[in-house]
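Annual report, structural modelling task.

Input specification for the flavin-adenine dinucleotide complex:
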Amino acid sequence: MRTAVVVGAGMSGLAAAGALARSGWRVLLLERAERVAAPPTAVVLWPNGQRALAALDPDGGWSAVWSPLPDGGVRRPDGQWLVAPHVRPGTGPAPAAVHLEDLYDALIAGLGDGVEIRTGFEVTTVVAGEGRRPAVGDGRTVIEADLVVGADGIDSRVRAAVAPEAVALGAGLAAWQAVIPGFRVPDLPGFVGGETLGSGYRFVAIPLGPLRGGVYWVATAAGAARPESPATQLTLLRRWFAGWHEPIGALLAATRPEELIPQGVRELRPLPRAYGFRSGPGGVVLIGDAAHAMPHHLGQGACLAFEDAATLRSLAAGVASGGDLGAAVEEYSRLRRPRTTTVIRQNRRMSAVVQARGRLALRARDAALNHMRPRILGRTLDPVTDWSPPD
Ligand SMILES: Cc1cc2nc3c(=O)[nH]c(=O)nc-3n(C[C@H](O)[C@H](O)[C@H](O)COP(=O)(O)OP(=O)(O)OC[C@H]3O[C@@H](n4cnc5c(N)ncnc54)[C@H](O)[C@@H]3O)c2cc1C
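The model returned the following structure:
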C-alpha cells in the first residue's frame, strides 16, 4: 500500500489527507498544535471551491454546512451603490459562506479510518532530493513515506526544503476578522451583507445563514499588522469606520475584543518554481498556502487549496493502482502551477480596486465599478471560478 505523510492539519491538509485515504493510501497527518482546531472565523466558498469539495468527497454533505450568500453589492462609505445588489458575478452556483468550525468538522469526518493523526508534532527537518526517499522529522523521530504533502501554511518548512526561492512577504495591508454569534447580532432589518470600499479601507459583512446564525465580517486597511492589544485595535477600527453606512458601526459595536482576529496580510513572492518534486522513488508536493499564499481580495485561498487536494486525489488514485508516482507528482505541478498563476494575476488586479487611495484613484475606481455591466463583472471572475476537477 502507498504511504503519505501530510504535514499540517489546516483546511488543505485535512482535505488532502482524506482524499488520499479514500484513494487507497495509508496516511499519517502531522500537526504541530496540540489539537486540530479551526480558527473561530469563516470563509466564502466560490463555485470552484464548492466543486472541488464535491469532487473530494461526494458524500461530504457539504451543502448542509455552507449557506448560499445573498448578493449584497458594493457600496461607498456613504452608502451609495458602486455595484447594485442582485448582480451575481461569475458563473455557476452562488458563493456560500461557511463557519470554519463546521467546515473542519466535515473535513475531519471525511478522514475515516485511513488517516492516523499525530498532534504536537512539529516538522523541523525535511529530506528530499535526487535518490532520496522523502522523509520528515521533528528532531527526535524521522518518518519516511512514498509521498510528502506540504500543507503547512505560508511559513512552510516543507517548501523551504524543496523551493527555497519562494519567500513570504508583507502585502502592505492588515486584516481583522470576527464572527458575532447569532444571539448577539444586533437587530438588522433587511440585512443581506455586502462590501464597502473606502480610501485604503474595505469592510465586508457576511450573514452566516439561518442554521449557524451570526455575522462574519472582515475589515482591511493599508499598512502593516498593528502591535496594540485586540481591545485597542477594536477601538481603532471603530474610529476608522465611524461615519460609514450602517450596519458597519453596529457590527463593530457588537464585536468583543476576544472575537477579533488581527493579522498582517502576506503573500508568496515569487511563487515556488514548481509544486511537485520527484524524490528518489517518491515525491513531495506543496498545497494550499504553502504553495500559493495570496492576499484575500478575491477570497480564493481555501478554494484553491481544495482544488489542489481534488487534483491530488485524481492523480493519487492512478498511483494507488500501480501508476508512476514521480510522473504523477510532476503532472500535479503541471496542472496546478498555471491555474494558481491565473488566479493570482486576477487577485493583483483586484488589489488595485481594493487598495485605491487618493482622490483621483478613488474617482477612477468608482467610475469603473459604476459602469461595469453585470456581464463584464461576470467575465472578470470567470477565469477564477470556472474550474472543474480533473477526471
Ligand atoms: C482575512 C482573510 C480572509 C480570507 N477569506 C477567504 C475566503 O473568503 N475564501 C477563501 O477561499 N480563502 C480565504 N482566505 C484564505 C484562507 O484562509 C487560506 O488560504 C487557508 O486558510 C489556507 O489553509 P492551509 O491549510 O493551506 O494553511 P493554514 O491554515 O495555515 O494551515 C497550516 C497548518 O499547518 C500547521 N503547521 C505549520 N507548520 C507546521 C510544521 N512545521 N509541522 C507541523 N504542522 C505545521 C499549522 O499549525 C496549521 O494547522 C482568507 C484569508 C485571510 C487572511
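Residues 50 and 63 are 9 Å apart (CA to CA).
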